[in-house]
Batch of 2 targets.
Target 1
Amino acid sequence: MRVLSGIQPTGKIHWGNYFGAIRQFINLQSTPDQAYYFVANLHALTTIRDKAVLEENTLGVVLDFLALGLDPNKATLFVQSEVPEVSQLCWLLLTVTPMGLLERCHAYKEKKANGLTADAGLFNYPILMAADIIIYDSDLVPVGEDQLQHIEVARDVAARFNHLFGETFVLPKGYVLDNSAKVPGTDGQKMSKSYNNTIQVFEEQKQLRKKIMRIQTDSRPMEEPKNPDECPLFQLYQLFGDEQGIAELREIYAKGGFGYGMVKGLVADAAEKVFGPARERRAEWASKPKEVREILDAGAANARKKAKEVLLRAQENCGIFPPK
Ligand code: ADP
Ligand code: TRP
């Protein structure tokens, strides 16, 4: 079974991205028959129009993956644009994609509903994503719920191509990541870049503490017993998963007589324990650009081997002469 997923390099990763996606990707890296993870820089080009920012973010996500435990000996890690076959397959798929299918896709629909003009790149974005998936004969695509619609599009388009030209592509399935506990941001609503309420995974220690101390809390008196499951601070603490600590904190909430400052201190300590060593590993990888480049070259070479095979199958089946 092949697992594949991609992350757009649109900014610094936050706790929501880690717990909601990246940590789970890394847990799936030992899937027999290989996991493929890539940085979707071609997709990011629909929103980032600054060369230096796009380049820096792209390598940044690679460092994030490596620092957080992605093992290039287990999973294939690469940059989307370094597999040019994806863009070639994208065209073949576009020729069998009904306009209506793309008109219903949410990124484009929302932009239009807000009165903004969309580029053709944004409109066709789901088909580039379909090519990303189909070109490796991927079976399973772990994603956040917001991306499920795009996996359905990939499945529809692959099935349509198969119907028109004969059995060519594997039909992929989406697998919704467990983000049942949506990670709350510093204002209590879902953590998201768009709400400006994020805590970044690789925040410097001092800055990290400062941010945690600024998390909004209610103004009920200290003595009052409180329900931990309604408290974003408790939810954040839980993410770091020290079972005994969680049980003890639960009791403290139920009894009352504690200050939120104390809980913030616990969250900060727990975060430092997990992300402190990752921060050091990231700095280490950042100081070895040659090795990182080698990992990406090997990842792209491995991915391309499969991509070439699937692209050729598609070209032959629909009557397109492949380059000699
Ligand atoms: P943002 O909302 O900050 O723009 P993205 O949409 O780029 O984040 O997130 C990429 C992935 O990270 C999502 O598909 C989702 O799986 C995960 N994710 C983002 N924010 C959260 C959150 N607050 N809680 C859980 N998962 C999240
Ligand atoms: N569109 C995805 C996102 O914004 C990123 C992505 C691009 C992707 N290609 C993919 C995810 C292929 C899974 C499979 O999160």
Target 2
Amino acid sequence: MNVLEVNGLCKSYRNFALKEITFSVPEGCIAGFIGVNGAGKTTTLRSILGLARPSAGQIRVFGLDMAKDAKEIKDRIGVVFDDGQFYMELTLKEMKNVLAPAYSSWSEQDFAGWLDRFALLPGQRICELSKGMRMKFALALALSHKAELLLMDEPTSGLDPLIREEFLHVLTDYMEQGGKGVLFSTHITSDLDKVADMLIMIDRGRIVFQEEKDALMDSYRIVKGDPALLDDETRRLFMKLEENGFVFTGITKEADYVMRRMPGVLLERAAVEDIMLANLSGAEAAEKQRGA
Ligand code: ATP
């Protein structure tokens, strides 16, 4: 079963549009939603939640239609957004008192447990929290009402590696409860190397791919070799190619053919970031390479 289904979602701003966004998150899956700055990740998440009004498309969560059952759906999802979620002058306890009554399955005991685990004090003011502490507070709230789907927008950006590691552990523990799903936007792709089951890439408002992470990682290889091996035909085997004096580095989906056609090259596994950069639309990829 899919905990989230997005079908044909469109949303236009003056200089940007989401174009028929379609993807799904199956139960038991941590889905990483990847794309460069401005690709449309936040706009997609805001449209799913009805915070931005889409011009077309259907959102189904737990099989329910967002257009008809928004109240029940929102009761069952946890949202962790980068900013704008809280009244900064309130203490954690006061903010919790504002939000908790909205949820039918709120658990004071779970909330106290999460604050403890995250070393947060109920009497602290939100404006006094660091960015990492605010993210932990948002996560504590989301996890204290037994959310079955977590929607998170760049939850790890700006966090130090220690907090990111802890955050990833919390996510793994959460999934172990069963029956849950996570959609997690990020451009810190190394986090996804560790925890994601599925990757969904968006670029310039369009979905480029949705694939299981392991299958995706198996289908790409980084190739390094002598530039003398490059000709018109072999160049076409690479989605992205950089030449630097004595060595070229490319990324390919045709590793077997590359090995036959280009003897002596070295092949390595690609990271999520390599795959993301290889799938940027042409002009932007060229720009990135020039900037690198
Ligand atoms: P980032 O990684 O930088 O957060 P993103 O992938 O989340 O990027 P969005 O925030 O969805 O990208 O922005 C996509 C595009 O939509 C950008 O060009 C942005 O300027 C535009 N946009 C977002 N919100 C609005 C708005 N309220 N009005 C007009 N344009 C907007």
